[in-house]
Structures are given as C-alpha cells and as structure tokens.
Amino acid sequence: MTRPSVPLALALLASVGAAAGTVLAAPAAAIVIDPSTPSFGQEVAFSWSGGGDDVNLTVWCFANATTLPAQPAGTQLLVTGARLAEDGVFTQPAFLTFGPTSNWTGGGADCTAQVGVITYSGNSGNYQQKFTSRPFTVSP
Hints:
The chain is mainly beta. It has a single domain, classed as Immunoglobulin-like, CATH 2.60.40. Helices cover 10% and strands 45% of the residues. The strands form 2 sheets. A 5-stranded antiparallel beta sheet has the order 5-4-3-7-8, with no helix packed on it. A 3-stranded antiparallel beta sheet has the order 1-2-6, with no helix packed on it. Strand 1 (31-34) and strand 2 (43-48) form a beta hairpin. It is elongated. 21% of the residues are buried.
C-alpha cells in the first residue's frame, strides 16, 4: 500500500474532521485593502474581515524615494481614517484617496493602515480594545 502525499493526507484529514463535526479554525481577521497596491491619486477601499462593536481605521503615509516634491524619507504626508463599525453595525468599506495634498503632489509613499477594534462585554461597562496594522506602499 502506498502512502498518500502530504498535501493529499492533509486534505483527507480536513475532510474527515469536517464530516465528523470537528470545527476547523477560521482564518484570522485582517485589514482588507482593495486594490492591495494602490497608486497615487487612486481611491482605495478599506474593510475589516473580523468582528467587533466599534471598529476604527487610521492610515498614515510617509515620504519615500519616489515622493514629489522630494522630501526626507519618513516625512509625514497624510493621516486619515474612518469608522468601519459602530455598535456592531458595519458601514464598510471606507473609501480613501491617496493624494494629491498640499505636500504630496505626486509619486509614492510608504503607508500603514491600523484598525482598532473595541468589543464590549454585556452591560457591565467593560470593554476590550485590540489593534492590528498592515503596511502597504502607494506606487507613483
């Protein structure tokens, strides 16, 4: 008897587990950026693939070697954000445009999107806040 290849064996185990009622782990929640590599001046959609009661997005962009006008690397070009959910009601995606601004007239930038997720615990007044971030580059 020949043994199945590793990918085939994993697929078989997954199907057997699913058939037996085993819960398979869901993918982790993530910041979704569409398009994933935006261009200068382009409108970009941001969304959150997880849950939460209040979900807030903040985006920072900094100058890189392609930024116009030329600026020292790391110079802040843009800070913007949006609320993706309030009281568990999601209003996503949020659409943000990357340039032009008064100090960013062309070229690319290095950016980071951060999501802050607040989850409330019943009527106790207690809450938990978690953050996750995702770097991305705006191309010229």
